Structure prediction request, 227 residues.
Amino acid sequence: MADTPLTAAQNAYLFLLMAEAREVSNSELQQRYGISITGVDSAALVDNKLATVRKDRSLLHELTDDGWAEAKKIMAGGYVKPSGASPASATLHAVLAALHRYMQRSQSSAADIFAATTPPTPTSATTKPKSSSRKPKAGEPVNVQARIRNAYKRLRRDPIIWVGLAELRADLDYISTPDVDQALQQLLEKKKIRLIPEENQKTITSADQDAAIVVSGEPKHLIAFGA
Prediction:
């Protein structure tokens, strides 16, 4: 049982992690559902021992045994309106309560219902994707925007859409920093790319800082193609 009552948002994240039934990154959650588990919401789940969290390229969360038990208890219990509740909170509980009744009738367990979704293909920390970047010959014209797009495609690890600018620049180290900066700004103006800051500021390295693009006074560390 949670030592501190969860808010409506934290309950929703609890059930989201149960539905995923595996360790899942914020980058993947952002891509698939348009949300991330951060700040006080992440802390509440971890402090109540309902989920674990670790840092890789993004924050990754996974439900603990206590988290599974708490989620099943909420499913089986009556609706207690949490802080920050909306009609969606009551609706979610109603759907989960109906699912719990089905589980009782069919003698199914939560593990039978909530099987792990397909995780991203793991990439060894010591093995980086092979780069097929071809350095131009002397005097050969370079389409920097195209080079950026191709580098992004090589470096992206599905289903995660975000690539670090530091990693991108390292792949394009034969192109000057000002030229890459200019091409990134042009792509941004054309709404061909999105740039966001690294959410966990404590993990930012000097390479990340040097590679960042400042937009409206805020350093951006990650890039994704597509508006």
User: Anything to note?
Assistant: The chain has ten helices and eight strands.
